[in-house]
Amino acid sequence: MKVIELHESVTESNDKDAAELRKSLSYEGITLINIMSSPGSGKTTLLSRIIKDIGNKVKIGVIEADIDSSVDAEAIEKLGVKSVQAHTDGMCHMDAGMTRAAIEELGRDFDIIFLENVGNLICPAEFDAGAHINLMISSITEGDDKPLKYPLMFKESDILVVSKIDAMPAFNFDLDKFSERVKGLNPDIKIFPVSAKTGEGMACLENSLLIR
Amino acid sequence: MKVIELHESVTESNDKDAAELRKSLSYEGITLINIMSSPGSGKTTLLSRIIKDIGNKVKIGVIEADIDSSVDAEAIEKLGVKSVQAHTDGMCHMDAGMTRAAIEELGRDFDIIFLENVGNLICPAEFDAGAHINLMISSITEGDDKPLKYPLMFKESDILVVSKIDAMPAFNFDLDKFSERVKGLNPDIKIFPVSAKTGEGMACLENSLLIR
Q1: How far apart are the first and last CA of chain B?
Q2: Better pLDDT: B185 or A12
Q3: From CA A40, how far away is CA B84, in angstroms rounded?
Q4: Could you give the CA distance from residue A83 to residue A65 in angstroms, rounded to a whole number?
Q5: E strands, chain A, where?
Q6: Rg (Cα) of chain A, in Å, rounded?
Q7: Which helix or strand (DSSP H or E) is residue A180 part of?
Q8: Burial track B88-97 (b if 16+ CB lie within 10 A, e otherwise)
Q9: Do B68 and A151 touch (CB under 8 A)?
Q10: How far is B58 from chain A (nearest CA, A)?
Q11: Mean pLDDT, to the nearest integer, of A77-83?
Q12: Residue A12 pLDDT > 80, yes or no?
């Protein structure tokens, strides 16, 4: 596992860079999935579960982006999947240039590359990382009011994973109200309530990632 | 309840502004407490509990900072406490100038002013908001690895509230390992495990806020 230090791209046109990266990955048959959420929503846990479930069907590579530490990339490597740990030099997001630099290190011999973005509901939504699918996670422990407070993240995402549903009995989380708020912001978003712990809902989510 | 639109301060010297704000509040006998955490760690829930518990002993005012929505300020006003909702113009933190502007709206006839910062573990730690106490919340549902990933926030905080401990049986959270990691970054930080739901640990936390 490599650890790379990234810095904000000097280019002014992130949207253009992102479109080019997406196109070049498509050309090579690679799907880039950008996973975004608050800290502690369960990005690495979900990713580990997906790798265990479908890692024998598709070749998966992982970019772990964090300000500090390499604990996530180490956890992923233990599953036998190639990963790079990208440190973002204090920045709270990955842009297209940074993602491209991380892919240079990771290589391109994959069907799916997961980018686990920095844990943050604000900045990552503002930068197109060049992904084909923006997948956000919102855990039920965070409460059902998150769409009201972080609308951009919900608007920019293609897939919304509602995580930790096994803990539902211990929390006041109204899934209907939450889904209604989300659909009000983004009518096209696909919502998957799951528990990476018990496996509930995982097959349905994984199928949607494989079908593309 | 007022909603005010704030913009990044034009001044270059946030540290100087913060020191001046802190001094002027001290002079008037006001303690400013800056509450920081991930989205959904329970800032508003904790604050509501504190207001119910000690609101009859001290005069409390609240600044709610968010990118969007006014749900938090509305929840606080229902408890009979004066609050202003500050919108941060897309920014993921409050600086000293923004905090000062919010206090202008709120008034200064208080013993304690709580600033509920934007839900984010990165940016708010980088800007001194002029508070006397930096209080961060980390919920057990977020996992015990957060100090490894967001070291600055743990270093900059005076008080760490470990929230949602009532849900401990449903999560793999090692409080000893977590505390050890935190103390490694910040030996002087005071750690309070609490449940705002059941009230466990709240009296101890509240005493520490009142003693100052």
Answers
A1: 28
A2: B185
A3: 29
A4: 11
A5: 2-5, 31-37, 60-66, 82-87, 112-116, 133-139, 159-163, 190-193
A6: 16
A7: helix A175-185
A8: beebbbbbbb
A9: yes
A10: 29
A11: 95
A12: no
Consecutive H or E run containing B198:
none
Both structure tokens of B177:
């390992």
d(CA B44, CA B66): 12
Mean pLDDT of chain A: 94
Q: Does residue B183 have a pLDDT over 90?
A: yes
Q: Chain A partners of B170 at a C-beta cutoff of 8 Å?
A: 166-167, 170
Crossing angle of helices A14-27 and A96-106, in 10° steps, is 30
Best residue in A3, A36, A37, A38 for a mutation probing chain B (most B CBs within 10 Å): A38
User: How far is CA A194 from its chain centroid?
Assistant: 15
Q: Which one-letter DSSP state was computed for residue A161?
A: E
| Share above pLDDT 70 across residues of chain B, in percent, rounded to a whole number | 98
Q: Residue A29: its pLDDT value, please?
A: 95
The total of other beta-carbon atoms located within 10 Å of residue A79's CB is 16
ipTM above 0.85, yes or no: no
In the numeric block, which tokens belong to residue B49?
């509990």
Q: What is the pTM of this model?
A: 0.89
Dihedral in degrees, nearest 10, Cα atoms A74, A156, A191, B122 = 40
Task: Report percent pLDDT > 70 for chain A.
Answer: 98
Q: Which residues of A touch B163 (CB under 8 A)?
A: none
